[in-house]
Amino acid sequence: MAAVKKTYYSSRIEAAKNRPAELFRTVRGLLNNTPQTVPIDDAAEKCEAFSQFFSKKITLIRSELDAAVDAISEDIARAPACSILMDSFQSVQPEDVDKVLGEARATTCILDPCPSWLVKEARRGLVEWVRVVVNASLREGRLPAGLKQAVIKPLLKKPSLDPTNWNNFRPVSNLPFLGKVVERVVASQLQGFLEATDYLDPAQSGFRPGHGTEIALVSLVDDLRRELDRGSVSLLVLLDLSAAFDTVDHGILLGRLVGMGLGGTALQWLQSFLEDRTQKVLIGDSCSAPQPLSCGVPQGSVLSPLLFNIYMKPLGEIIQSFGVRCHLYADDVQLYHSFSPASKEAVQILNRCLAAVSDWMRVNKLKLNPDKKEVLLVSCKAEQGIGLQPVLDGVTLPLKAQVRSLGVLLDSSLSLEPQVLAVARGAFAQLKLVRQLRPYLGKPDMATVVHALVTSRLDYCNALYVGLPSKTVRKLVLVQRSAARLLTGAPYREHTTPLLKQLHWLPVSFRAQFKLLALAYKTLNGSGPTCLSERISPYEPPRRLRSSSEALLSVPPPSQVHLAGTRDRAFSVVAPRLWNSLPREIREAPSLMSFRKQLKTWMWDQAFGPS
């Protein structure tokens, strides 16, 4: 029986090993720690009730917003006129379809005529048929009605929440597989258009190639550290939206698409994608009647995040017009304003900016989540923040000791101690769960699971950990040591350096430096975002020297860097210094893959000595 169980567990993990989210769900399922869905007793009645609940929730939000915009000029929702730059989507070739099918996730919907994994397995024989369907859809500017239906499964947001309170359920939607294939084709071409026209704001970091949460946070923390070094304080305001994707106004979005230069069948296809959609709720084997959707972009869709970015684009321009900086990551809005502690006008400027943001949200049919408005005062001193609390919609926002920004806990001194402690606790909890699987998994499968659930936590945004005090980083070091002992079966007191070498793991501090240097390489070679490329620049000596051609970076002079926190941890200061310490052949690596390979070898020698 144990052998059968081991084979079963191994096959499940092997099938999901290249998809972290799927692997996490698989392990959670193997441990019987599955997310809570609705009990299936009286499923038919509950389906209809949930369907009405989700629809009325969006209707109520929209009606509240409609009532609030009477006194606000709707000009801020209008897009400027633009000549047509893209009037059709290009037809796809068989090799394009084969690639899309191969990369698509096998998420079967009950509306699919056959399982999506079977379509992927048999794709060589289906490529031509799928190509004909995709090209007909693009040519006619129309998405078939059968591909615009969504199936909703209510999922409890957290296991600890009350399942009798329906506000605690999230509507998780599932869409037909073929529809997602067509969407992938459109999304690829639309993404290319956005990049070619440089349409999106550099402050938008979500759902964009080369723009992730780590880059957004590295940029934010670098700005905040440099401001501390100048003697300034900063107010960081975090805003979140309620059901943001579900309340997007189709008319406004189509206006934005016209404003960015879309027309012809390209615009017709996107209009068809948005309109005449339906959704129904599934509980057990019961389904509700379809509900028509008059607004929103479908969650679970491939294309929706891209359209949401286009919808949100004007917000960054409004915020920056007040001299306030921002980062927009999907429906998370981060504003930060830096100023002298003696300034009497700074908070008023931020308040006017927040008022403009609130007005823009209402006109654009987006609702700020009243329970997720947080403010952090970043300062070198233990400021009380009296008189520095910003006001939004007539409510004073209290200052917090720490806030969670894109999954990272930031504190007022940017020590990152709360973040490191939270990561260590979470990683140890995952290790405890993984130990339960050890009797049923071989070493390769255990290594896959430990990476997915433990070391991935240590590596998330670990570029922020460069330069942290050793006593802070030690908490993460202990996690890595425990993970190494678990995988190797070593006793508790055994020295871990040989274990790390055996597993080919770089120590925690080197992993952080590796991540930061990889970001620097991508930024210098054109694959990094503007928000990072503005922070580092090639070294240009006053006169021609031998070092001029050695791919060095300019390091900020001591006159610009006074605090140890900036000198040791700010990306714009640390990245050039670490980069310049690398051997020239690594700095001049021809590709990211080559750079990473050479960098790991060099760091391995630094950590453990030459092999």
UniProtKB/TrEMBL annotation:
N-terminal signal peptide: none
Coiled coil: none
UniProt xrefs under InterPro entries: DNA/RNA_pol_sf, RT_dom
Domain Reverse transcriptase as annotated: residue spans: 136-410
Superkingdom of this protein's organism: Eukaryota
Protein name listed in UniProt: Reverse transcriptase domain-containing protein
